Amino acid sequence: MAALAVATLIGWGCLVGAIEVVESVRTGVLNNRKGPDILAVEQPVLYWALISFYAAATLTAAGLALLVMAIAVRDLISARGPDR
Hints:
By secondary structure, this protein is mainly alpha-helical.
């Protein structure tokens, strides 16, 4: 059950990250919370490099969430078997 909770938390973080990436691509502005925002028009190479990095990180975390969830579900199903 703890693994399902962890997978849910990671999945929620992925959803928030995906929303941020889609919103940044839609508006062309990458919100930088510790400094000035990065505009696609002013700094296209930096903007697209960071958007690509954020998208790859979000997809990697989503894969991790799916892996943890699959392991947790497998363990839950095998724990309910007749031999236990």
